[in-house]
Amino acid sequence: MSAIVSVDNLVKQFGNFTAVDGLSFTVNEGDVYGFLGQNGAGKSTTIRMMLTLIKPTAGSIKIFGKEILHHRSDILRQTGAMIERPDLYKYLSAYNNLSIFAKMSGIKVSKKLLMDQLEMVGLQEAADKKAGVFSQGMKQRLGIAVALVHNPKLIILDEPTNGLDPQGIADMRNLILRLSNEMGKTVIISSHLLSEVEQIANRMIIIDRGKKIVEGSVEELLDPEHTVVDIDTTNNEATQQLLASSKWNDYLQAEKPLQLMMNKTQVPALINDLVAGNVQLLSVKASHSLENYFLSLTTRHEHVEAFAN
Ligand code: ADP
Ligand code: MG
Fold first, then answer.
1. Is residue 93 within 8 Å of residue 131, measured between CB atoms?
2. Alpha carbons 87 and 139: distance in angstroms, whole number
3. Residue whose CA lies nearest to ligand 1 atom number 25
4. Distance from the CA of 14 to the center of ligand 1, in angstroms?
5. What angle do helix axes 94-104 and 111-120 make, rounded to 10 degrees?
6. Whole-angstrom Cα distance, residue 240 to residue 247?
7. Mean pLDDT for the stretch of residues 243-272
8. Taking the CB of residue 117, how many other CB atoms lie within 10 A of it?
9. Whose CB has fewer CB within 10 Å in the chain, the N or C terminal residue?
10. What is the DSSP letter of 247?
11. Is 100:114 a contact under the CB 8 Å cutoff?
């Protein structure tokens, strides 16, 4: 397993604001690597540095084992990217958009190859339609075709599902899986939604305020051992006492009175015990600790913004 991207102690300051703060991570060949963080966490800034669109304040980025600032064109030739909303020529057809981007990247491509690319992203029927009339999902998929036109090994997609409807999100998910499974590409996909990334990534990083929170395999990060169970009843105080004097005491979370952490397989037994103890349940919600944690980050920021406004 070789590292395709190695980011080491990356820092980006805008004035005296630190958007990326000592970030290190590794993307291995063949990964679908989820780059997660809420809005403003520093995802796009990191991606812009990886594409040499902006310069790091400090730290290093190696892609294909080479320092990007010294091997810029070499690396960009093997890298395809779609950052936020793709730049397309709205008065040109999908086919002509793709053809222009191919020419700009200096490669000779046949009509067949361009049509194959459009088919790959599900736009073969729309090849002659103007990009300006496309739905958001079609624009994003054309953006991906553009990113793929020079057959790169590494594909970086910055929030490719932003602004898409559920069908568009599902199509995008399938496309990314095809890029990885059928074409052997290494894919980095950024998102502010854990639920979206956990379905397609094999590894992921979560960043907050430019810093790494966790990085690891999705399997390990979403281990069912760490299921958080939130309970609400008609008498929470009595329920807590009941739990505290039972075998469930070991699973109670100190900071929240009616929250337990356990293996997901234990949840039905907990519910049985509550019912047997005559607890009047209003709700039981089992979720993964990472999901809870990620939600708490989002909630915290909403508070900050509420104050700022
Ligand atoms: P994300 O993509 O995770 O939503 P960004 O990387 O776009 O986050 O932004 C991270 C932080 O850096 C945000 O607070 C944003 O306002 C700030 N930022 C991004 N670009 C600039 C810039 N050119 N000048 C000043 N601040 C910036
Ligand atoms: Mg962004």
1. yes
2. 9
3. 14
4. 8
5. 120
6. 12
7. 93
8. 23
9. C
10. G
11. no
Tokens of 129: 């339609």
Band of pLDDT at residue 18, cut at 50, 70 and 90: very high
43 lines ligand 1 (CB under 6 A): yes
Distance of CA 116 to the CA centre of its chain: 27
| Residue carrying the six token digits 């979403």 | 222
Q: What is the pLDDT of residues 152-207, one digit of tens each?
A: 999 999 999 888 888 888 988 999 999 999 999 999 999 999 988 999 999 999 99
Centre of ligand 2 to C-alpha 39, Å, is 7
List, in order, residues 6 or more apart from 175 with CB less than 8 Å away.
120, 121, 122, 141, 144
Both tokens of 125, joined, read 């029927």
DSSP β-bridge partners for residue 29: none
Instruction: Write out pLDDT tens, residues 31-78.
Output: 999 999 999 999 999 999 999 999 999 999 999 999 999 999 999 999
Please list the alpha-helical segments (H only) found in 80-135: 94-104, 111-120
Compute the distance between CA of residue 43 and CA of residue 59 in angstroms, rounded to an integer.
16
Tally the C-alpha atoms within 13 A of residue 75's C-alpha that lie toward its C-beta: 20
CA–CA separation, 43 and 6 (whole Å): 15
Closest atom of ligand 1 to CA, residue 48? 6
CA pair distance 232, 279, nearest whole angstrom: 10
Please state the pTM of the whole predicted model: 0.84
What tokens appear for 160 in the block? Answer: 């490719």
